[in-house]
Amino acid sequence: MSAVAISSGGNEGELAFALAKDARRERWVMLALTIPGIFVVAGVLLSPVGWLIWQSLVDEGGHLTLHHYLTLFTEPKRLSYLLNTFLLSAEVTTICSLLAYPLAFALTTLSERLRKLCMFFVVVPLLTSVLVRTYAWLIILGRRGIVNNVLTNLGVINEPLDLVYNYFCTVLGMVHVMMPMMVLPLFAAMKSIDGDLARAASSLGATPSAAFRDVFLPLTLPGLFAGATLVFVLSLGYYVTPSILGGGKVIVWAIFLEQTVSFNTQWGPAAAAGLLLLAATVSALILARVVVGVKAHQPTL
Amino acid sequence: MTQSITLRSVRKSYGRVVALDHIDLNIREGEFFTLLGPSGSGKTTLLMVVAGFIRADGGSLKFGNTEVIRMPPHRRDVGVVFQNYALFPHMTVAENIAYPLKLRHVPLTERRAKVDGALKLVRLDGLGHRDVQQLSGGQRQRVALARALVFEPRVLLMDEPLSALDRNLREQMQVELKRLHRSLKMTTIYVTHDQGEAMAMSDRVAVMNNGQIIQMGTPRDLYETPRSRFVAKFIGESNLIPVSVAGSVITAAGTTLRVSGHVDTDPSGCGLLVIRPERIQILDIHETTGLNRLIARMQDAIYRGDELAVYATLADGTEISVRCGVHHHRAMEEICRPGQQIAIAFHPEDCVVVKSA
Fold first, then answer.
1. Which CATH number describes the domain made up of A76-296?
2. Which of A71, A200, B151, B297 is the most buried (most CB within 10 A)?
3. Cβ partners under 8 Å of residue A212, min gap 6
4. Do B266 and B178 have their domain in common?
């Protein structure tokens, strides 16, 4: 392009004009390249959400109404589903953090070869269907599952224990599914920390726990936050594991949504429920960002 | 209060690799002591053992009269400056420097005063509020130094602290470190692979190789009387001329030479005569002299402004490099034509003979 501009015009003004034209053309090319992406986002994200918002705001006759939202808030049971979903997600996120933190740290201390192997085992569950991973727990913990069989044969128990179809099992299953999401960002954050920082801290007089508290932990917080966000958000919308392992006792918002869709002839109530979850999720994320943002700012001296 | 450092038979192996082979050292109170060696020589391992980051397999390490070999690093009271500075990226400059004081529960007002004092010491006054990421390499180095000094440690350890800086800055920091050491009189162990740096800054230098201390002494000792081929090659530039020694007669390529320095040979009587390039004079082939004199053939002469670098070969093929001072240039250019026969001459006092292996 510039070669053309140089050969076509000799004087200063013409060149400047040609350069401006080149710049404009470049911008159009960039725009043209992003158009497919924009179409995808608009087509599969923005327009369905727009449609949902519209559905949640009209009644059967097509008149504007807040009825669908008001029902959600007036029936205490429904709000408790929402609360439960948040509590379950928070629990899963906390447990994942506590389990993944030492695991990710251990991974950073391994030799290159051993680490690649262990990393493979961390990532492998991601390559397996969630359904398969969830049913595996039924095989392990079910009434005639491995655990109950072993315990019965050893004579520890007479009757098989009820290990599945409850809240505990739901949490267990979800933690299992979510672990890689937590380990990977944490590992990335820990791996990027210079090992000399911990040595520096200890040479300056920090006990191992002080060095962890003052240097290592603060530097891993972004990774922890990234992992926690991922796990929390995914957990909020989780359907498969609670519905299989919860045995109908654990009603999370996604299960409630599914019921709403099948019990109603209309999209309105479900649309309102979905949007409420979306709004709650976004506010939770903003709140978390504010809290962590404040925390990351250390007091001076 | 700064203290002496005494090592007795300190050793460390990794499997079959011996990283430190029975190291004995006495570093005096207030001394600037350098561990010099190529990579893998064990110098950094030794420093890490003194800092407490690496646990030795055996031996004794004392600061003053206190045995510290089993003491964890956070109780040793050593200031360490790392190669890549190891500043805490989530803290400001002042927070970094205040950290060791905070750990020692120094009251806030005193802490502030000490941080300001340390910043002044390394000439970074007024930069306390900066993020460490905003600093240049040289400034980070100074912060690392301030942080290592602010709590008045017993000893200061530096692991190749200048190697990440560019050449000009490195020379400037050498002068600055020297000035700091003069004013603080802190017992310092400095690790480097740069012999020029070691020569410029140290009271004493230990040359290390394969986990052992090969030779120890003042920079002048090491340069002028190397005791081995390794030290002669590693410190400064050397000409190594094969000689045979029979009794008190030393011959090189059939010519008898006089050596008033130290003479050490292989059991077979072979050795290498060490002579520094700037100690050799170049003579016309017909000129005679009372000094040691060998015949050589000119290869090349390179004008470097402050000196003339002359390359020649002896009859047996040994390459000789000579550096002539500025005032000799004109005369030299007459003699130094490639292919020409010349004579090289050197003083017996400037020679030592070391084992050839």
1. 1.10.3720.10
2. A200
3. none
4. no
